[in-house]
Amino acid sequence: MLSAVLVTTPLFAQTDSGTSPAEEVEGVPPADGTEAQPIGKPTETQPPNASNQEPAFAGQTRAAQPAEMPKAASEIIAEGLPQAWAMQLLPNDRILVTAKEGAMHVVYPDGKVSGALAGVPDVDDDGQGGLLDVVLAPDFETSNRIFFSFSEPRDGGNGTSVASATLALDDAGGGALKDVKVIFRQMPTYDGDKHFGSRLVFGSNGELFVTVGERSDKEVRGQAQDLGSGLGKVFRIDQDGKPLSDNPFVGKDGALPEIWSYGHRNLQSAALDGNGRLWTVEHGPKGGDELNRPEAGLNYGWPEVTYGVEYSDDPVGAGITAKDGTEQPVYYWDPVIGPSGMALYRGDEFPEWRDAFLVGGLVSTGLVVLHIENDRVAYEERVPLKARVRDVRVGANGAVYVLTEDPDAGTSNILRVARAK
What we know:
Layout: E1 6-8, E2 72-82, E3 84-90, E4 94-99, E5 103-107, E6 131-136, H1 140-143, E7 145-154, E8 157-169, E9 175-185, E10 200-202, E11 208-211, H2 218-221, E12 233-237, E13 259-262, E14 266-272, E15 278-283, E16 289-292, E17 331-333, E18 339-344, E19 357-361, E20 366-373, E21 376-384, E22 388-394, E23 400-406, E24 411-419
Antiparallel strand pairs: 1-2, 2-24, 3-4, 4-5, 6-7, 7-8, 8-9, 10-11, 11-12, 12-13, 14-15, 15-16, 16-17, 18-19, 19-20, 20-21, 22-23, 23-24
Protein name: Glucose dehydrogenase
InterPro entries: 6-blade_b-propeller_TolB-like, Glc/Sorbosone_DH, Quinoprot_gluc/sorb_DH_b-prop
Pfam families: GSDH
C-alpha cells in the first residue's frame, strides 16, 4: 500500500560497525549511534578485520568522501511485500518484484501489489536460496520477454539456473509467466543453501552476463579456480543459454565455454558502466567485499587470494592478498558493506552522482555511492536508509528506487530516494 512517510537522510553517512561475520546470513545492521564523518574523510573509520593486510595501491580501500554530497529524502511507495530479492521497473510506473519464496508480483503506481503471477517454476528457498534476479529482455517493449535466475531444486541438491519467459499481465491486476524455459544451469549440482549469487546483466550487444557464487563450503569453494566447474564464475551466454563464440575459453580442453571470468566468491551486484563494460561487487569473507571489472579469461583469486579473514578470524588459505596470475580488486571493503544490487546513475535528480555506481548495502543498511575516475574509486559516500538494501534501480525521472528487506519479519519495502526539498 502507498505510504506518505518521508525521511530525510543526513548529509553525512553512518558507518558500519564491521564486527559481525554475518555475510553467511547475509549481513547484520550496524549498531545504532555511529557518527557521521566530515567531508573529505573516509566514511569507514572502524578497524579492519584483517589488521595485518595492506592495500596493493593507494585508494584501493577507504576512499575519501567527495566535497559535495546531496541531501536525499526517502519515501515508502510500497510496503509489506513478501521478502524480495530483485525488482525491475516496467512501463507505466509498474515494478516487477521477485519474492525469495518463489513468487513474482507487480507493484502498481498506487502502491497496490498483485497476487503471485502464475507459471513461476519451483525454487529451493532454504538459506540464501530462492527466486533471485530478474531483467527485461533488450526487446522487451515488443516481446514482453524477461529473464530470471533462481536456486533450482535438483536431484542431489540445487544450483543457480536461468530461465526466460513471456510476461503476460492482465487488466485485472494479475498475470502469468508463459513459455517458461530454463536456458542455463550452473553445474555441478550441490547440496547446500549458500552463495547462489546471482545477478543478470545484458551487455550492449544483447549478450547475457550471469554471476554466480561458489557455494561457500570449504569442500567446494576451491572450484572457483576450476575452469571445468561452474562455481564462482561470471558466465557470458546468448539469449538461448549458449556460449558466445568469442568467449575466452571456447575450445579449451576441460573448460566450460560459457565462462567469462573466474575466481569469484559470491556475486550479488553487477552493472554496466557508460562504456558498456561489466562491473561487479562480490561478498568477501569477514572483510574483503570486492569491486571488480571482470575481463575475459582473468582470474580474480578466490579462495587463494583475498582481503579479509575467515569468520573464525583465521587466515583464508595462506592469508595472501596477491599472487601472480590473479587480479587485484579495483576496490575492497574491510569491514564489509554486504553488497546486493547495483546501478549506474545517469539521471538528473542527483547531478553529483552522474556516472557513479549505486550499490546496495545489506550490512551498511543504505546506498554506497562509488565515484569512478580512470577505472578507480575516487570517492565513496554513503546514504543511510536504516534498512538492508537488496536491490537498486534508477528511474527515468532520475529518482532511485531501492528494495529493502527484513528477513526476521519476512517482508520487504520499496523506497523512492530523491533530492530533499
